[in-house]
Design brief:
This protein has 27 helices and 13 strands. It has about 750 residues and is an alpha/beta fold. It binds uridine-5'-diphosphate-glucose and manganese (II) ion (MN).
Length: about 750
């Protein structure tokens, strides 16, 4: 230990400018209160407006509905303040870590999950695997496990190829200080001659250059072999003979019905498993496909994770576990060391159960048409959870302490301490084949029968958002967590490239979150007395995504429909009551824009994000709400729709041009188009009233704000009208969706008009 022996391994800073924010928030709150006052005092129309009884009655009910929606939005706004109040930011001191602990770094087991070779191509999966094998970390302390829920021979073949290529790739990464360490990502960023990293200093430039090119060529050859094999769906005969692993597939009938397959492809304990350049050790690499039988529920990713926990405990038993999705490659080779700075910090490390990293996407376009990167959520809101006990676990890019993931309660500095339990000695003596056979038992369907797996132990079952509920339960056992969002992001994933995929993904998340809220894990009940009130509220903020659909649907359809009848639902333009409305709208959207831009977004990106939130609320959340109601009645079964990571060429081209992709007759699009149509009709009618009836001033005075609201909804829906009426490509809205939505919109209008 040097002189700085007592200095911490990480540091925490609070955000600046919070006083200004608080003043702003209070002013918005005053505006909101005035809006309530307006709604409450104007429940009944003033006498001169009309004496038609039917009009009064109808207006009253619509008014109450609007008031209710505004109360909900106010409540939700209030919750969201907790996500802005006091964010904290972390930084680490890796040099202190190496000075003090280089020899005692704990073992790390990395879990990569894949589920379908068609939508998660094996070449992508092995690039992720190679990127995590190449971490800047002692290789004898690193083990990588691939869980293949498809039980696919093609993925196994790709992994076998990767295990061989790793012997070239790892020393190459070290020599050229490669970043990122996914070969596909790396070679695609440096494919021009002048960008290649030959230092030319002491080494022989020519030799280096040749070496660099030879490894690139090896990668490309491997990639081509894997891609061809995947396309033909056939393993080359020579490979099949070479490795005993393929024999396991004699017993595999389908992806849903097969025994466990466990193959240790690189055994870290074997002297022959070293790299080709320096003969250094390389990380252990294991392929696992747990047993699947139609009779047994496999619990999706949660089931895979728990099988991985057990299998790894028997092979390397690293005290720290990193979990990534198969599309999420390591973008920063120092991320493991950063994470260790948190776990090994002498004064605070012992209470930290997991370190959650932020994530970026490799395939986002400039203005992020589908709002995938959730910019503000990742930059600000999760940092606010960190202030109040720690971020949620978001499923990928998270380092866990094995014991807390396995269900241990936090007790004190002593029991969560720094004594890392190392590999069990007995494994040193067992041969790989013996280990494989033990692991098959551990990953069988029946292993979990009558155990606490999925309940108290490991990742929790029963929710499509297994990550959130697992993180929550860890925090409720007394542990803290940490959010780390370094300058160079640690993980890069693949964003969905079509609107429907994005909406379906959001549906799964909102459904998972809402179901947790309705279960015994509701943070307000389950977390009471265990985690801070602020953290309970922050969890609630996300878990209540789904119910937002009702007030939103109301707000974006009813005022526009009532333009047809000229029923005014907002203050007149000349009335003073317009001020709180104007203030709340301008202040909150102005703030949101500023916040978005400070987090690195563009103006167009912000506009896109507003649109996608509208679409999410009216479609993903709406269908979540319906499905959840049905499943609460006990009629539905849990599902997990895996997000596609590839798209066909045409779709991808449109994505690159930021043209919205519809192209599917999904009911989600019917809802979305109907709302677009209702507002178009409302706006046209409102303008017609103004122009044809030559009552511009009067109509504007009465209905000004309502027309503006309707106009903004029309503007934001522009891509929908294009898709419905103007586009000819395959990504347009299918005509069946158009007919349905026109019919529904006309129906809604006539109900509003005649009833
Ligand atoms: O039966 C299954 C289904 C999925 N997966 C894997 O789970 C991961 C996540 O699936 P994906 O379709 O990519 O979902 P995303 O919405 O992108 O994932 C986020 O949300 C999920 C919960 O909804 C979490 O499980 C993920 O970790 C988190 O990154 C992928 O690697 C899949 O291969 C399995 O291993 N088995
Ligand atoms: Mn994903």
């Amino acid at each position: 230990m040097g002189r700085d022996g007592d200095l911490p391994l990480f540091e925490t800073k609070t955000a600046r400018g919070r006083i200004a924010y608080k003043l702003y928030a209070v002013s918005v709150f005053v505006g909101i209160c005035l809006i309530w006052a307006y709604r409450a005092s104007h429940l009944l129309p003033v006498a001169e407006e009309t004496d038609d009884d039917q009009y009064r009655r109808r207006r009253r009910w619509v008014w109450i509905g609007l008031f209710a929606a505004e109360l909900w939005f106010s409540f939700y706004w209030f919750l969201s303040q907790f996500a802005r109040w006091n964010p904290v930011y972390r930084s680490t001191f890796k040099h202190r870590l190496s000075q003090r602990y280089e020899k005692d770094l704990p073992g790390v087991d990395v879990f990569v999950c894949t589920a379908d070779p068609k939508i998660e191509p094996p070449i992508m999966v092995v690039n992720t695997v190679l990127s995590v094998m190449a971490y800047d970390y002692p290789p004898e302390k690193l083990s990588v496990y691939l869980s293949d829920d498809a039980g696919s021979e093609l993925t196994f073949y790709a992994l076998l190829e990767a295990s061989r290529f790793a012997k070239h790739w790892l020393p190459f990464c070290k020599k050229f200080k490669v970043e990122p360490r996914s070969p596909a990502a790396y070679f695609s960023t440096v494919d021009r001659d002048d960008q290649q990293p030959f230092d030319g200093g002491d080494g022989d430039r020519l030799v280096e250059k040749e070496y660099w090119w030879s490894v690139k060529k090896l990668y490309e050859e491997m990639r081509d072999r894997i891609e061809i094999t995947t396309r033909l769906a056939q393993i080359p005969a020579n490979m099949r003979k070479e490795h005993k692993g393929f024999r396991e597939w004699d017993l595999v009938s389908t992806a849903h019905d097969h025994p466990a397959v466990v193959q240790i492809l690189i055994d870290g304990r074997e002297p022959k498993d070293v790299d080709d350049e320096n003969h250094d050790q390389i990380p252990t690499l294991v392929y696992l496909s747990r047993e699947k039988r139609p009779k047994y529920h496999h619990n999706f990713k949660a089931g895979a994770m728990n099988a991985l926990i057990r299998v790894s405990s028997n092979i390397s038993n690293g005290p720290i576990i990193l979990n990534v999705d198969c599309d999420v490659y390591s973008n920063n080779s120092e991320a493991v060391r950063d994470a260790m700075c948190f776990f090994m910090d002498e004064s605070k490390g012992h209470e930290i159960a997991y370190v959650q990293y932020s994530q970026i996407y490799s395939n986002l376009t400039r203005n992020d048409l589908y709002g995938i990167c959730l910019r503000v959520l990742n930059e600000v809101e999760i940092a606010a959870m960190d202030t109040n006990g720690g971020p949620c676990y978001i499923g990928s890019g998270c380092f866990h302490r094995r014991e807390s993931l396995c269900g241990m309660k936090y007790c004190s500095k002593e029991c969560g301490g720094l004594e890392w339990r190392e590999k069990k000695d007995k494994n040193e003596k067992q041969s790989a084949t013996v280990l494989e056979n033990i692991c098959k038992v551990l990953s069988s369907c029946t292993y979990e029968d009558n155990t606490q797996w999925g309940k108290e132990m490991g990742v929790k079952y029963g929710f499509p958002a297994e990550d959130i509920v697992t993180g929550l339960s860890i925090q409720c056992r007394g542990w803290k967590s940490v959010y780390f969002n370094p300058e160079r992001k640690a993980f890069t994933g693949v964003a969905p490239t079509a609107l429907l995929q994005a909406l379906v993904q959001q549906k799964r998340w909102s459904e998972g979150l809402f179901q947790i809220f309705l279960s015994k894990y509701c943070p307000l009940i389950y977390g009471r007395g265990k985690i801070s009130l602020q953290l309970q509220i922050l969890y609630t903020l996300y878990m209540l995504w789904a119910p937002n659909c009702l007030p939103t649907l109301y707000y974006v359809s009813v005022p526009s429909l009532f333009l047809l009848k000229r029923i005014s639902l907002f203050p007149e333009i000349t009335s003073l009551w317009i001020l709180p409305f104007a203030y709340v709208i301008i202040a909150s959207y102005g703030y949101s824009l500023a916040e978005f831009l400070t987090c690195g977004g563009t103006l167009q990106g912000w506009w896109n994000e507003q649109r996608i939130w509208l679409f999410r609320r009216t479609t993903s959340f709406f269908f979540t709400f319906l499905d959840t109601m049905v499943s609460q009645l006990g009629f539905a079964e849990l599902g997990f729709v895996v997000t596609a990571k590839v798209s066909d060429e045409e779709v991808y081209q449109r994505y690159l041009q930021e043209t919205m992709e519809f192209g599917s007759p999904s009911p989600m699009f019917v809802v979305l188009s109907t709302i677009a149509m209702i507002n178009l009709l409302g706006l046209v009618w409102g303008l017609k009233n103004m122009i044809v009836d030559a009552q511009i001033i009067k109509v504007l005075e009465q209905l000004g704000l309502q027309i503006v609201l309707c106009g903004v909804i029309v503007l934001i829906n522009m891509p929908a009208y294009q898709g419905l009426f103007f586009r000819r490509d395959k990504g347009k809205m299918p005509s069946s969706v158009m007919y349905k939505s026109v019919m529904l919109a006309l129906l809604a209008c006539s109900v509003a008009f005649y009833c």
